[in-house]
Amino acid sequence: MIISQTPLRISFTGGGTDIPGFYTAFEGAVISTTINKYIYVAVKPRFDRRIRVVTTQIEEVTQVEEIKHDLVREALKKTAVHSGVEIVILADVPAEGSGLGSSGALTVGLLNALYTYQGKDVSAEELAEQACEIEIEQLKQPIGKQDQYAAALGGLRYYHFHKNGSVVSEYIQIAETQKQDMQKNLLLFYSGITRSASAILQRQGEQLEQKKDYLLQIKEQCALLKREIETGCHSTLGSILHEGWQWKKQLADGITNPQIDNWYETALQAGALGGKIAGAGGGGFLMLYAEQDIHSRLRDELPLQEMDFGFDNRGTRIILGNEGAGEQSRLYF
Question: Highest taxon of the source (predicted)?
Answer without folding.
Answer: Bacteria
